[in-house]
């Protein structure tokens, strides 16, 4: 809106673009000559009503944007600090967009900021289900066989691993080692102490070759903490 020939902006709308929730608090940080109350025509449902709302002048608008920590404000802040102010210092004026001046230039900047925040919201919405599913999985109780752990890890789009490769990867990471006549996998004590792995003792069995009862080698199982640590290591290896 224009008051006395100068552009004024509805503070609530400005805060909405910048994703700032409390416009009243923002108004309290502005100087008296930067903010005022104005009567606006609003649509509430099917009714046209008039309400008093805080509005800010051009100086107040720039102060709100430049002091904001919102990601939506960053493109405008960067434009001012990297283009406008250096150009004024060097040439005494800024003429990068001669077709847009005054309110039109400001409105264009705010529209661009709105695009940034909408893109950010879309990215968050896309990633949230995947993150929530992973959080539920790693917070579960119990432990998993190595082939089950490999399947869980492969749910991450950036990881493709099977049972055999996971055994090899854990050995290279210093979590497990081979031992005994049967060359079975065993967990290092450090992997057990840190809660990454557990060993489950198997039932005794009759060795048909010797005719003697033998104790089965312990079975290595991966805990939720171990899966999360393996995921971090696999992602790091892939990035390298």
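-> sequence recovered:
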């Amino acid at each position: 809106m224009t008051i006395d020939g100068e552009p004024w902006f509805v503070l609530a709308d400005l805060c909405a673009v910048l994703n700032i929730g409390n416009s009243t608090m923002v108004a309290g940080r502005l100087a008296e000559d930067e903010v005022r109350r104005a009567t606006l025509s609003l649509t509430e449902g099917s009714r046209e009503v008039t309400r008093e709302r805080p509005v800010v002048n051009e100086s107040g608008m720039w102060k709100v944007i430049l002091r904001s920590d919102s990601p939506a404000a960053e493109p405008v802040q960067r434009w001012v600090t990297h283009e406008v102010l250096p150009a004024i210092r060097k040439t005494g004026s800024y003429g990068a967009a001669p077709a847009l001046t005054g309110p039109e230039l400001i409105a264009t900047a705010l529209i661009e900021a709105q695009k940034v925040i909408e893109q950010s919201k879309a990215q968050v919405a896309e990633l949230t289900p995947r993150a929530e599913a992973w959080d539920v999985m790693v917070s579960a109780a119990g432990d998993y066989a190595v082939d089950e752990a490999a399947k869980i890890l492969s749910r991450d789009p950036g990881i493709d691993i099977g049972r055999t490769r996971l055994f090899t990867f854990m050995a290279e990471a210093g979590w497990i080692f081979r031992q005994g006549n049967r060359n079975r996998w065993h967990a290092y004590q450090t992997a057990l102490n840190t809660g990454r792995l557990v060993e489950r003792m198997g039932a005794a069995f009759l060795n048909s070759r010797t005719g003697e009862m033998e104790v089965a080698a312990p079975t290595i199982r991966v805990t939720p903490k171990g899966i999360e640590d393996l995921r971090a290591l696999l992602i790091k290896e892939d990035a390298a």
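Residues 2-130 form one domain.
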